[in-house]
């Protein structure tokens, strides 16, 4: 059973999943209305097909958690949460860690232990003080 679970939730798969989500999001948001619609539609279809194939391999809850981790990783307002999200995808391998409840519980625990939101508020205050001092 361990081998089957490891094969399904290994770190390489996490990175592959993240890459496919990033690619789909990049292609989806590249629509401008002014470019080559056929090129965009083909690229979107290929990227979407990769997502569908990935969803056949992984349960939708796993993919949802990976999408949330991606959002946390690329957001700019909290480097502490961005680092936490990157570490989460690299260090977690238990299936429970990639359920929504497991993810939210881990996030809540990280907040209690590491005070990541507090760190974010302190960084904002320090930036404001620096701005006002100039």
Description:
The chain has 134 residues and is mostly helical. The chain has one domain. It is built from seven helices and no strands. The chain has helices at 2-9, 11-28, 37-57, 60-74, 79-91, 100-114, 116-133. Helix 2 runs antiparallel to helix 3, helix 2 (11-28) crosses helix 4 (60-74) and helix 4 runs antiparallel to helix 5. The longest helix is centred in the middle third of the chain and has 21 residues, at 37-57. It starts with a helix and ends with a helix. The mean pLDDT is 75.
Summarize, please.
The chain has 134 residues and is mainly α.
> Low-confidence parts lasting 5 or more residues at pLDDT below 50?
none
Q: What share of residues are in beta strands?
A: under 5%
Q: Count the DSSP helices.
A: 7
Total number of strands: 0
Q: What gap, in angstroms, lies between the N and C termini?
A: 60 Å
Overall 3D shape: flat
Number of domains: 1
Radius of gyration: 18 Å
The major pleated sheet works out as: none
- Give the SSE order as H and E letters: HHHHHHH
Overall mean pLDDT stands at 75
Percent of residues in helices = over 70%
